TrEMBL record:
InterPro entries: Cyt_P450, Cyt_P450_E_grp-I, Cyt_P450_sf, Cytochrome_P450_monoxygenase
Cell compartment(s), UniProt: Membrane
Protein name: Cytochrome P450
SUPFAM superfamilies, sorted: Cytochrome P450 (SSF48264)
GO molecular-function terms, A-Z: heme binding; iron ion binding; monooxygenase activity; oxidoreductase activity, acting on paired donors, with incorporation or reduction of molecular oxygen
Main location: membrane
Lineage: Eukaryota, Fungi, Dikarya, Basidiomycota, Agaricomycotina
GO terms for cellular component: membrane
Binding, heme: C376
Family membership noted in the UniProt record: Belongs to the cytochrome P450 family.
Amino acid sequence: MHHIFVKDQHLYDESLFFIANNHILFGPGLFAMKGEQHRKQRKMLNPVFSVAHLRHMVPTFFKVSEQLSDTFSQKVGNQKQEMDMVTWMTRAALEIVGQSGMGTSFGPVTEEQEEPHYIASYKLGGAWLQRKIVDIFPWKVGHQMADIVDTVHNTSVDIFEEKKKVLAQGDTEEASQLNEGRDIIGILMRENQKAANEDKLCDAEIIAQMSVLIFAAMDTTSSALARILHLLSMHQDVQDKLRAELREARENYGDQPDYDQLISLPYLGAVCRETLRLYPPVPTVIRETQADAFLPLSTPITGVNGEEMSEIFLPKDSKIFISIQASNTDPTTWGSDSYEWKPERWLSPIPEAVQESRIPGVYSNLMTFIGGGRSCIGFKFSQLEMKVIMFSLLNRFKFSLPKEEIFWQMTIIASPTVDPTLSELRPRMPLSVSRLED
């Protein structure tokens, strides 16, 4: 994997099919670029997701998560109620990315507010449905997705044009407010304005980043949040232990701990890491050889002719399916309990085998957020979002399993359902929610 994602990443890039479809869906954003243009966009975007900027986003994250908690409280009342976590985690993720990503609201996370149009993208199977393809077929679900893609694009254009107009006004009060703003796109536009001509992104590229941000931040993070709540419902002892840590933190730091205080909570970090290790939201990725290549093997194998092989020849355009989940659960690296969900493993030094494995991931010796030049640029944003929402919800509510059994579909983005035939297109995960005394 080190050769694929780091050393020889130019030989093992995203497939032409993947790039073309992302261009159709998102426009000329980070997901749809290769080579020098991808590096140029990434160079501009990297500072935008820095810890320095994330620190300023924590109050916005808490504003949305507390609104979510208030909605849960109103809905649950004094009796246990079943609530669909997919819907609510997706709505919260969308509103967080709207406010902290673009400085806009897609609608409050309340019972009365109509479900935002974007949420249907997740319920219709994720962002892999392409705009141009669905136009060809007379399927209702296809045209619903086409409408969503159009809505996302039009919204992105409107937000961009408004910000661009304000920035062009110079010394006005509105321009000053935008220059002091902390949302991701506002920061990107300011940095782009200051960049050298050869490094600047065109308007279409900035607009495309907004579409990428909406889909990427909403789908994968909501999947991870739903998975954590499912696991905590299955393991009440872990839920109780985590809640005890979070309530102690609330006593020490108040209702809205800052970035460093959140990151310092060991068991919250352990629960998030272990969930992302065992259940990565994107369990498999694909790479395609850009030229004939010899891929070195970490361990020699014996070929059908009986000869030992230490590398494999891959002709140009070969597709390589890489299991993120298999890497994260390899017993030779993580030990005999690698397939068990054990947050406590992160409270001790990681095994020597993990340190020596040279896993090229950007996060905790895991491949969950991949590695190299196409690693997930917003992985710290996603982790922070998960921790803020867990802090708000677990301080006030207890989650337990419903009567129906929950199944997880291993689609491009893992999604839950209660349909044992797995024929239901819309992800759904009801959990029993009860309000706790403060």
